């Protein structure tokens, strides 16, 4: 059972619902704001701001929906033997700090979950590695290295 992935999916579904509601509300507000534009530059600016805000909300909602679909498609699979999207990874850095990570194709900010892309420097250093393997990558002139402790 991929409990860590199920936990992530549960949280993403909650956020997906809230995000969809926010996108719908901002889209409605943008339509309302553009209803009586002729009065002033200020009203036109308000309408433009409302449209931009609505577009951002809709994009975020679509990203979260993609993430939910990706995770849902991976839940029924067996625990992976090597790191690939979508999976949970526990790593230990050389300084002894441990970190829970989720490698996913469509990472977005989810409070309490560290989602990383397989295209990021860190993600590339982890791909196709198994438990007990070491990783390293360089970012901003710093070298990061550690060991993979768990994959789910």
Describe the model:
With about 150 residues, this protein is α+β, with helices and mostly antiparallel strands. It has 2 domains: about 5-75; about 85-150, Roll (Chitinase A, domain 3). About 45% of the residues lie in helices and about 20% in strands. The protein has helices spanning about 5-35, 40-75, 120-125, and strands at about 85-95, 100-105, 115, 135-140, 140-150. Strands 3-2-1-5-4 form a 5-stranded mixed sheet. A hairpin with a 2-residue loop joins strand 4 (about 135-140) and strand 5 (about 140-150). Helix 1 (about 5-35) runs antiparallel to helix 2 (about 40-75). The longest helix is centred in the middle third of the chain and has 35 residues, at about 40-75. The protein is elongated. The mean pLDDT is about 85.
Total number of β-strand segments?
Answer: 5
Strand order in space, largest sheet: 3-2-1-5-4
| Count of discrete structural domains | 2
**Overall 3D form:** elongated
State the secondary-structure class. Answer: alpha+beta
Order of helices and strands: HHEEEHEE
Kindly estimate the percentage of residues that lie in beta strands according to DSSP.
Answer: 15-25%
Oligomer: single chain
**Termini gap:** 9 Å
Radius of gyration: 20 Å
Outline the biggest β-sheet.
Answer: 5 strands, mixed
Helix fraction? Answer: 40-55%
What are the low-pLDDT stretches, counting only 5+ consecutive residues below 50?
A: none
The number of distinct helices, counting runs of at least 4 residues, comes to 3
Q: What is the residue-averaged pLDDT? A: 86
